[in-house]
Write a structure and sequence with these properties.
Number of domains: 1
Oligomer: single chain
Order of helices and strands: HEHEEHEEHEEHH
CATH superfamily: Gamma-glutamyl cyclotransferase-like
CATH topology: Hypothetical upf0131 protein ytfp
Number of helices: 6
Structural class: alpha+beta
Strand content: 25-35%
Largest sheet: 5 strands, mixed
Number of strands: 7
Distance between the termini: 38 Å
Shape: globular
Length: 192
């Protein structure tokens, strides 16, 4: 992927990564620079079944993915040129624990400093790990019970909401899900 990026017309040698959920609050790579960013043609959705990080094969959780359509606000992170290949390998191990779930793409991100091409992890709606839109009762069941190696789906949702709020990003669906969890009395659901 890095070689392909470097061969693209107009590439300036910098490597950027687009964060829209946990990468914002837990990047786990050295960030040289970060900026608010917006991508068009993709939106953030809590629709990727997680059988490792936020759930198990017996009780899958959910994590965010970028799905086609709409727009998404997040952040882009510039990696250090000297360690970009190593940082991307670490990022790959984290984001792709099961090969082929995400489809990594270089997407144009609009920032206050112009458009930057950044690596983003997307999901095809037809992928078997892409959950359909779930009714609230099914979502609450996942928020109550799904737990994986990094914790619960509810914690993941709450951390993402807080990270977005502190950056001035409002995501109505995240706020709706947190309010739903709070009304259901789920511990760990902060006020939306």
């Amino acid at each position: 992927m890095l070689r392909r990026l470097q061969g693209m017309p107009g590439h300036d040698g910098e490597v950027w990564v687009f964060g829209y959920a946990s990468l914002i609050w837990r990047p786990e790579f050295h960030v040289r620079e970060r900026h608010a960013a917006r991508i068009h043609g993709w939106h953030r959705a809590l629709r990727l079944r997680s059988v490792v990080n936020r759930g198990t094969p017996d009780r899958p959780g959910l994590v965010f993915a970028l799905l086609p359509g709409g727009a998404c606000r997040g952040e882009i992170f510039r990696l250090d040129r000297a360690s970009a290949a190593e940082e991307l390998q670490r990022l790959w191990a984290r984001e792709m624990p099961i090969a082929g779930i995400y489809c990594p793409r270089w997407l144009p991100c609009r920032t206050p400093h112009g458009v930057r091409l950044a690596l983003a992890f997307t999901l095809a709606r037809r992928h078997p790990s892409c959950a359909p839109r779930l009714p609230d009762a099914a979502m609450l069941d996942i928020l109550r019970h799904a737990r994986g190696r990094y914790g619960t789906t509810l914690d993941y949702l709450a951390h993402t909401a807080e990270a977005l709020r502190t950056r001035g990003i409002r995501d109505r669906e995240i706020e709706r899900l947190l309010a739903l969890a709070e009304r259901a009395g789920l511990h760990g659901a902060p006020n939306a």
